[in-house]
Specification:
Blueprint: H1 3-18, H2 45-49, E1 77-85, E2 91-100, E3 105-115, E4 119-120, E5 133-134, E6 136-148, E7 153-166, E8 169-183, E9 190-198, E10 204-206, E11 210-212, E12 222-224, E13 235-246, E14 252-253, E15 257-268, E16 274-283, E17 287-295, E18 300-312, E19 315-326, E20 332-340
Parallel strand pairs: 13-14
Antiparallel strand pairs: 1-2, 1-20, 2-3, 3-6, 4-5, 6-7, 7-8, 8-9, 8-10, 9-13, 11-12, 13-15, 15-16, 16-17, 17-18, 18-19, 19-20
């Protein structure tokens, strides 16, 4: 097939994927109708630099929250850590591990925790604080398994334990993720699909919901408040990626330069459908520059980043940086370290 024909087919295909329908007035987004919204936070410096377009290009433990099949690309063993500082002392951290059990089986874990930093406990009698401190923390711990079904298809699943702690009140539950990554063999296109945060409704419990009352028949004189149940942010993701330039590119082949285009379509049960579009340039698989954008999203905008990969014998160290612009908070910066053994 001629080079020009390949480019035409590629342009038409991407035009269909990127095409958006006209805005529909009065769309109900269902914002703030689910619990555990921290599960939708983007993690991983490489993924953030690509604007969150990581469902098809995620290769390793950093891609687990986007698509659990990503762990099926681990070679032998991989460890990842990242730390992000938000405003007023809020931070989030990621620690992940993955290993190849057999020629086709992979396991690992992905741990994420969000912390508010210390805050003052206030009451009606002490509006300036009682002298006591507390933290709001949100945690997610995923156990992941993936399998290479064929040399082109990988499937993965994860069991996710989640917990929120707000002073003396907590919420906890279990969610499930499932995903796949498929090399179509058609002009180098790769498809990623995932369903994440599937699980039962959750509600808050704890001592903070107990109220002491005098006019009750309860011998403990306690009134236990029951909170409303909320669903988790169930999210569907369809992703596509292609090496426009690269060693195995169907369009422009190069042993040194690589340019990857990635796009994700995302729909959660508490928000309108939106997209992520990202580009990654790699020079000799040593130095990388990334940029991305969030499409049809009301807060997240442009993103950028870069990284280097240093080979050390049979091991490698990857250092990545990402920046994302957000209309509601200050721009955030994230650094990530990835070790491959």
């Amino acid at each position: 097939m001629s080079q020009s024909r390949r480019i035409i087919i590629y342009s038409v295909f991407m035009g269909i994927l990127l095409g958006q329908s006209p805005d529909i007035p009065d769309v109900v987004s269902k914002v703030a109708t689910s619990a555990g919204n921290y599960l939708k936070l983007e993690t991983g410096a490489r993924a953030i630099g690509l604007g969150g377009a990581f469902g098809a290009v995620g290769t390793g433990v950093t891609g687990v929250p986007y698509n659990p099949a990503s762990i099926g690309f681990v070679n032998r063993m991989e460890v990842y850590f990242s730390h992000t500082e938000y405003m007023v002392g809020i931070s989030h951290n990621v620690l992940a591990y993955g290993t190849q059990l057999t020629g086709s089986d992979y396991i690992g874990f992905h741990m994420f925790w969000l912390d508010s930093g210390p805050m003052d406990v206030t009451t009606e009698l002490y509006p300036d604080g009682t002298g006591e401190k507390f933290n709001v923390s949100s945690k997610s711990f995923r156990f992941v398994y993936a399998r290479s079904v064929t040399d082109r298809l990988k499937i993965g699943m994860s069991l996710n334990y989640i917990r929120d702690d707000i002073y003396t009140v907590y919420m906890q539950g279990v969610a499930y993720d499932i995903g796949s990554n498929f090399d179509t063999g058609l002009f180098g296109f790769k498809l990623g699909m995932s369903v994440t945060n599937f699980g039962p409704e959750v509600q808050y419990h704890g001592e903070g919901l107990v109220q002491i009352v005098s006019d009750t028949t309860d011998p403990d004189k306690q009134l236990h408040k029951v909170t409303k149940k909320f669903p988790l942010p169930l999210t569907f993701r369809l992703a596509v990626a292609n090496d426009i330039i690269g060693k195995e590119s169907a369009f422009v082949q190069s042993d040194i330069h690589r340019l990857t285009l990635a796009m994700d379509g995302i729909k959660s049960n508490d928000y309108v459908m939106y997209g992520s579009l990202g580009l990654e340039y790699g020079y000799g698989e040593f130095a990388f520059i990334r940029c991305g954008s969030h499409l049809n999203h009301d807060t997240m905008g442009m993103a950028a980043g870069g990284g280097v990969r240093v080979n050390m014998g049979g091991s490698a160290l990857c250092v990545d940086y990402a920046f994302v612009n957000n209309s509601t908070i200050e721009p955030t910066h994230q650094f990530g370290l990835n070790f491959e053994f």
